[in-house]
Amino acid sequence: MKRVVLGFTAALLLGLGAASLVAGEWLTRPVRSVVDAPPAGLDAHAVRIDHGAAQHLAGWYLPGRPGHGAVLLLHGVRGNRLQMLGRARWLQREGIASLLVDLPSHGESSGERIGFGRLEAPAVDAALAWLRERVPGERVGAIGVSLGGASLLFAARTPELDALVVESVYPTIEDAVRDRLTMRLGAPVGRALTPLLLAQVPLRLGFGTDALRPIDAIRSVRAPLLMASGTEDLHTPWPETEALFAAARAPKVLWPVPGAAHVDLHAFAPGAYEARLGPWLLGHLRRTPATPAP
Asked: Which residues contact 240 (CB under 8 A, 6 or more apart)?
């Protein structure tokens, strides 16, 4: 009986280890997709932003009206710029220019691994530099969803943004992994597999889990901040959003989206989203009439 128990335990541990290796590979491997040209009738231009060593971002730029500012739009994990197209159309109606890019290792951008925001941060800084050069004199903001929000928090953002919106962002990689495993496999298995997945981070990404803590990175944000998340989000439960928000400096605003899970908040409630974010963004990005347009 003792041998049977030991054999079963060994088999279980081997199975868990193999499952964690497969999951680790899936979570970090690139997600390629063909996005192609901007949709017909959309006032947008395809762009390519080179950065790093032979790396590039693919994206679209939508012009706005002088004096209304510009916003970098960053999608969530395993998505691409199409996820942010609804926001870009809305911003253009408001007169705000926008730049949508595929994050590294997503869509048509280059990249070897998904880095949970840390590997993506230098490319985000390159995109912000490109946008500032495209609209000199304009105030610049950013909206980042999940992975896109974490990437913005890890970025240098120099000079600091005039407005920053982050949506559905995890506070620590430990929280993110545990929450997702627990949601899919239940608490006992989720807790057992979490250390096995986290142990792979240095191997796959080249840095430790201590580098994947948006709750620490957010302390350096000096931009006016709006944080949003769904009250029914199981990927990042509401108490974790509250903890992330508490770590941020003022001025800051927290917007709980009632009934929303870990979904596209603009698609979930476009009217409420635009009514909440529109005045806030314009208040921070629009120049006063006395300021000459570039």
From this structure: 170, 171, 175, 179
What does the buried/exposed string (b/e) look like for 153-162 if buried means 16 or more CB atoms within 10 Å of the residue's CB? bbbebeeebb
CATH architecture under which domain 43-170+216-285 falls: 3-Layer(aba) Sandwich (3.40)
- Residues 265, 75 contacting (CB under 8 angstroms): no
The model's pLDDT over 221-277, given as tens digits with 9 standing for 90+, comes to 999 999 999 999 999 999 999 999 999 999 999 999 999 999 999 999 999 999 999
- Which amino acid is present at 91? L
Lateral strand order in the sheet of 140-145: 45-51, 55-62, 97-101, 70-74, 140-145, 163-167, 225-230, 252-257
Nearest of 273, 290, 252, 226 to residue 91 by alpha carbon: 273
